[in-house]
Amino acid sequence: MLFESFSAAQTTLLWSVFGVAFVMGAIVNKTNFCTMGAVSDMVNMGDYSRFRAWLLAIIVAIVGMLILESSGMVDPNSSFPPYRANQLIWAENLLGGFLFGIGMTLASGCGNKTLIRIGGGNIKSIVVFLIVGVIAYFMTSPFPGSDQTLFSVLFYDWIRPLAISLDSKQDLGSIFSSENPMQMRLALGSVIAFLIMIYIIKGKEFRTNPEHWFAGIAVGLAVLAGWYLSSSMLIDIPDEGEQYTLVEYYESWDMVSDTEEGKPAQGSPLSPQSFTFVNPMGQTIGYASSGLQTSLLTFGILSVFGVILGSLAWSLVSKSFRIEWFFNFKDFLTHVIGAILMGFGGVLAMGCTIGQGITGLSTLAVGSLIAFAAIVFGSALTMKTQYYQMLYEDASFFAALTTALVELRMLPASMRKLEAL
Fold it and tell me: What are the beta bridge partners of residue 365?
């Protein structure tokens, strides 16, 4: 899409993202697409239907990205966040994903589900949102009057040295074929999508449920729409005979613009990107605390508002809107702890169940694979541990945790402390 000014291009992008997020919020609410719920169904009931819907969204995103990238319509190598960076921050992906998986279980939902629940009238999720947002904001933004962030104070010195510097980008295509990564992405991505699709259609309950198909395809297409929209806004400079992307225009602002009016506060959020929700919660807190400065509006902030309002719209149409508050102090404390872990974990992992679990995986990035696995494991372990704590009220946390690890096949059966009922 070609525009005559930066303002027109950015405005179109932001409203378009809001529209896609609005639709996604309504669909996710209607279909109960929930990544934490998918893990819960697997762990507690042996039902893999919602997990298959999640995998279907991943397949749609991967296949769509292969088409968009191979045709030159999207360049995920320059994405925000940098999923394919040469530096593989595996420890951050692993620890962050694990913490996020625990946190989303305690807080009753991932980042996307938190926004969906807010739209449905859940005040508990507003508290979760505020805590996640504040932590995410200060993990990436300096404290007032300082150049230190939460990340630099608590994590950088010990976890960043564990990162691995690669000779290529960290996506599977670049790692296996540095000379022709696109062809390798097409080959590997196609094989991965095919194998996952076989697994998906083996599930009879999923196969016969149109709503699961609809949810998975819709969420995957929403992620693709985000990639396309953030990559397709071009500004035409007639005097120069050149066309600039939003981030290129920002970087050349002094040369192509006569005024600073309308210049965003940062250039990185103008890069190719798609939906993720932890960092945008932090951006939303920053936007609100700044007095709603338009220079701080981003793809992420509009996606947050869009999902909430889309969910609200469906809640009102379906008459499912209900105010929900904490049951007791324990419920409040559990959600607070979960929100704290989500805030730290989501930023460390560089994304959530949507941000890394679908958007990041669409780029075939190794870091996204690590984060995805860690999120699922952290959530499953927490659910299993909670289950045994509920069955055996007098049992210690260590006994419940050990038994959970045995059931997840992370420890030998001989170490089981509690019997299943």
Answer: 171
Q: Give the per-residue pLDDT at 242.
A: 84
Calculate Rg over the CA atoms of the chain. Answer: 22
Listed in sequence order, the DSSP H helices in 233-298 are: 246-251, 253-256, 278-289
Q: Per the structure block, which two tokens stand in for 223?
A: 């992620």
What is the distance between the alpha carbons of residues 284 and 180, in angstroms, rounded to a whole number? 39
pTM: 0.96
Q: Are 350 and 92 in contact (CB under 8 A)?
A: yes
Give the per-residue pLDDT at 228.
98
Rounded CA-CA distance 277/57 in Å is: 16
**How confident is the model at residue 260, as a pLDDT?**
83
Contact 353, 359 (CB under 8 A): no
- Taking the C-alpha atoms of residue 260 and residue 421, their distance in angstroms, rounded to an integer, is 67
Report helix, strand or coil for 245.
strand
Cα distance between residue 370 and residue 104, in whole Å: 17
Q: Please list the alpha-helical segments (H only) found in 90-208.
A: 90-106, 111-119, 123-140, 150-151, 157-159, 172-176, 181-201, 204-207
Task: Measure the CA–CA gap between 340 and 150, rounded to whole angstroms.
Answer: 12
Would the pLDDT of 241 be above 80? no
- Determine the Cα–Cα distance for residues 365 and 357; give it in Å rounded to an integer: 11
**Which amino acid is residue 350, in one-letter code?**
M
Give the model's confidence band at 256: pLDDT under 50 very low, under 70 low, under 90 confident, else very high.
Answer: confident
Q: What is the mean pLDDT of residues 44-51?
A: 93
**Cα 170 versus chain centre, distance:** 18
Could you give the 3-state DSSP secondary structure of residue 2? strand
Show the tokens assigned to 377.
């494991």
* Of 240 and 412, more confident: 412
Helix residue spans in 324-365 (DSSP H)? 329-348
Structural domain boundaries of the chain?
Answer: 2-415
> What single letter denotes the amino acid at residue 261?
E
Q: What's the CA gap between 95 and 350, in Å, rounded? A: 11
